[in-house]
Amino acid sequence: MTNKINEVVYAVYEPKMYKRDEEHGGLSDPNNIRVQMIKDDTVSIENIRSDGNRNVAEIVETGQGYYYSFDYTNKPRAFTEATRQELRRSQSHVKAMKLGLAKQGIKTD
Questions:
Q1: Using CA atoms in the order 50, 33, 59, 44, what is the torsion angle rounded to 10 degrees?
Q2: 14-35 per-position pLDDT tens digit
Q3: Maximum Cα interatomic distance, the chain, rounded to a whole number of Å
């Protein structure tokens, strides 16, 4: 997810009025990316970056809810869908799971 945040969100423009938090409390901070097992075969990956009671990830994803107007107001930057597509393409989540199981002595192939 952090790769897609950097590509889809941060790389598209350089802010002039503020400094981004990025991996220090921002969207790409690992502490703001929650990974949970939902079922035996389902993993949920969610960006939980907030600003008070505002869901920053949702604002960036939809382009709606900014307090100010700028070039990306009302322009979605869909890093979650980009992450889904990358996972489907690379299967890196499956590879990571197999590696984790192998480290525990569980064969998967």
A1: -120
A2: 887 788 899 999 999 999 999 9
A3: 54
* Alpha helices (H) along 1-109: 2-4, 56-62, 79-90, 92-103
In angstroms, the Cα distances linking 85 to 40, 69, 91 are 22, 29, 10
- Helix ranges restricted to H, 6-107: 56-62, 79-90, 92-103
- Contact between residue 13 and residue 51 where contact means Cβ atoms under 8 Å apart: no
d(CA 100, CA 70): 43
Q: Which of 41, 45, 39 is nearest to 86 (CA)?
A: 45
Residue 2: CB atoms within 10 Å: 18
Query: Is the pTM here over 0.85, yes or no?
Result: no
> How is the chain split into domains, by residue range?
2-103
